[in-house]
Amino acid sequence: MADLRIGLIGLGMMGRHHARVIREVEGVTLAGVADSYGDPHGVAGDLAISASVDELIDLGIDGAVVAVPTFLHEEVALRLAEAGVHALVEKPIAGDVESGTRVVEAFERAGLVGAVGHIERFNPALLSLRERIEAGELGEVYQIATRRQGPFPARIADVGVVKDLATHDIDLTSWLARSGFASVSAHTALRSGREFEDMVSFTARLRNNVITNHLVNWLSPMKERVTVVTGEFGSFVADTISGDLTFYENGTARTEWESVMAFRGVSEGSVLRYALTKREPLRVEHEAFRDAILGRENAPARIVTMREGLENVRVAEAVLASAEQSATVVLPA
């Protein structure tokens, strides 16, 4: 079978990584690239740089990766859907729910594979964590907490930290818990003099009654990407920068120090860091996109669908509304 011909639209910071990975993945070929601003990172190689999406489509592509700024996602994605081209759109799927809805409906009407680049789902630590939760290793899940903070990325100018970063946490939380968000309560801050928020703290309740907490910002000098899932038998801690997963077990040994026992509620047990096979998440994401286009078994369940990406934007907008209103926002069932 001939390789799938994949086009890349957008040659910025994420585009350069997509170009590299597309060239590495078996069964696909980087057939063309497009960016009206040129190729700042020199990733095109011997490929001519198309000046428009239509010019790229004319090369005869089966699928495309959309790595342009968020405000252009709808325009580019709709043109791909009209041309019958499968698409992997970087997150968020669009700048707002209305725009995202039009994209989702276009791809569904055309019967095309539409995926959103919520890359955390392909991180080895989170993949292992989800498998272990589903195997019952944590028992009942009580709480999910995430911390996603680091320095300001100058490349992001069209959305704030909620839609750019917190959508990762919204997506992975729903995915781990297998439940959507029921309500959110949030606070945001603008400290860097930009138009959009650069800090958010929000709590939530999922539809299955798991409670959650999320701390996200562009204002920390250190970079942190941590997910903590606490349940009946202990806590899992996933570090998605290193790809490490650690389990802190509730202790079974008797604690005789009365003041400590009263303070902790449960005793400390064993701590285990798992040895995981660590593959680059972006490569795994591209393999899932390839397999979905080819219709391989279970492939659709591996991608983050556009419908799921749209729900993430819906929750993000509820977070922003909560912060603006200083009130808890209940999401429609």
TrEMBL record:
Chain ranges of the Gfo/Idh/MocA-like oxidoreductase N-terminal domain: 4-118
GO molecular function, one term: nucleotide binding
GFO/IDH/MocA-like oxidoreductase domain sequence ranges: 128-236
Source organism superkingdom: Bacteria
Keywords attached to this entry: NAD
Residues annotated as transmembrane: none
Record-given protein name: Dehydrogenase
Taxonomic lineage: Bacteria, Bacillati, Actinomycetota, Actinomycetes, Micrococcales
